[in-house]
Write a structure and sequence with these properties.
Length: 271
């Protein structure tokens, strides 16, 4: 198959780049130095998905695949594991965690599939001598909003959750009140850093907001990203409006900027 040939060619190229007489930069890399590139390529892939750009998505997925092959080559050089070991491990995992497809287990719907997947994962960890937790499998390196969502989802699957939306909404109000109480001992504009108590309460408020988003079937990471994109788009519009008038933004008053902001917002909504 063409795909098999192309993949093997990629593996062979990476081996050559890392070999004597190969690329000095590639030969210097380690698992640790490549961490930033793996993360960057993953985010660029997400950007291509959001842009619905198939050409860019194809290219970015190739860059992610390159990172996998790069790490495999580094490990292969010291006899730890190979690209074949990686493929075999994920094939075995997919078969093991889809007994409703590859065995005689029956499931009713997608939710049952996820529940069964988590049960099998916990059993695997327990068999390895680890003390299993319903929260296992959520990397500490996740972005905080995504980590909060995944932690909450896993807790919910074992019944630790509210029955109705009023629960997380009430918790939001409670945490906002506690933030306001913690702020009473801190003066904005004083130059003093916020207290540890205020930071903790603000974190609790964010956690409650994520929980409410989960109940509403929203992805908080995506929701916040869209809001950031919207702010950036409108702010750039404000900059353009002042530049067209020959006015430097720094010299405009807040009231002037607010008026232009509202105009940009209305123009955006009318499109």
């Amino acid at each position: 198959m063409a795909a098999d040939r192309s993949f093997q060619e990629l593996v062979d190229i990476m081996a050559r780049l890392r070999a004597d007489g190969g690329c000095p930069w590639d030969r210097e890399q380690t698992h640790t130095t490549l961490k930033r590139y793996l993360l960057e390529e993953a985010y660029e892939t997400l950007e291509a998905i959001d842009a619905r750009d198939d050409e860019a998505l194809c290219a970015e997925l190739g860059d992610v695949l390159l990172q996998v092959v790069f790490h495999a080559q580094i490990a292969d050089e010291t006899g730890r594991f190979t690209i074949d070991d990686i493929c075999r491990a994920i094939v075995d995992k997919l078969i093991r965690r889809h007994p409703h497809v590859f065995s005689d287990i029956e499931v009713e719907d997608a939710d049952a599939v996820v529940t069964n997947w988590e049960r099998i994962k916990r059993a695997e960890r327990s068999g390895g001598g680890e003390t299993p937790s319903a929260l296992d499998g959520v990397p500490a390196q996740f972005p905080a909003l995504l980590r909060a969502q995944r932690i909450q989802e896993k807790a919910s699957r074992v019944g630790f959750d509210w029955d109705e939306l009023s629960g997380p909404l009430g918790k939001m109000r409670e945490e906002l009140s506690e933030v306001e109480q913690a702020m009473q001992s801190w003066q904005p504009g004083s130059g003093e850093p916020a207290s540890a108590e205020l930071e903790e309460e603000f974190g609790d408020l964010l956690f409650a907001l994520v929980n409410a988003a989960r109940f509403l079937k929203l992805t908080p990471e995506d929701a916040l990203r869209r809001s950031v994109d919207k702010f950036e788009r409108r702010f750039r519009g404000v900059e353009t409006a002042f530049a067209d008038q020959g006015v430097e933004l720094r010299s405009a008053s807040l009231e002037e900027m607010d008026r232009v902001w509202e105009k940009v917002k209305e123009e955006e909504r009318s499109r």
